[in-house]
Amino acid sequence: MDETCVSVNGLKYWVYATIDRNEILSMRVFPLRNALTTKIFMEDVLKYCDGSPMFVVDGAPWLREVLERLGLGYYVESFGERSLVESVYSSFKQRTSAFLNSINLNPLNRSERFRRSMLCWNLFIKLFMLYYNHLRK
């Protein structure tokens, strides 16, 4: 499990992802990166897990804090198994720059622009997961 920052049209978003055996289990975008967004993401991830899953994370304190609060097993690793999630992010960022940077939401007021940008993100993530898990092979 990991998160990464993606900039689109000058705005920063945080994309969380969980990978299991080279398949994306869950991927979601948030406007912030903190313990609350991590907890929301982890509660969603647990819907796809059986038993007691073991998570591989980097040294981010908010990740460890949430996993400990939820009583989930984890270990910290900078390379190795984490390279799977990094390869997903590499592919995701390439497609993001080609697709989402071309969407113009500027004429809208701030709250409507935010709402529509989150809708675009969530649709894009669903399409990316379909591509990554089923079509790219």
Q: What is the β-strand count? A: 5
Number of helical segments?
A: 4
CATH class: Alpha Beta
Radius of gyration: 15 Å
Q: What is the element string, with H for helices and E for strands? A: EEEHEHEHH
Please describe the topology of this protein:
Blueprint: E1 2-8, E2 11-20, E3 23-30, H1 35-45, E4 54-57, H2 61-69, E5 73-76, H3 83-99, H4 110-135
Parallel strand pairs: 4-5
Antiparallel strand pairs: 1-2, 2-3
Summarize the structure.
The chain has 137 residues and is an alpha+beta fold. It has helices at residues 35-45, 61-69, 83-99, 110-135; strands at residues 2-8, 11-20, 23-30, 54-57, 73-76.
Question: Which properties best describe this structure?
Answer:
single chain, 137 residues, alpha+beta, three-stranded antiparallel beta sheet, 5 strands, 24% strand
Give a written overview of the molecule.
- By secondary structure, the chain is an alpha+beta fold.
- The chain has one domain: Ribonuclease H-like superfamily/Ribonuclease H (Nucleotidyltransferase, domain 5, 2-Layer Sandwich).
- Helices cover 46% and strands 24% of the residues.
- It is built from four helices and five strands; from the N terminus they run βββαβαβαα.
- It has a three-stranded antiparallel β-sheet, sandwiched between helices.
- The longest helix has 26 residues, at 110-135.
- The radius of gyration is 15 Å and the shape is globular.
- The mean pLDDT is 86.
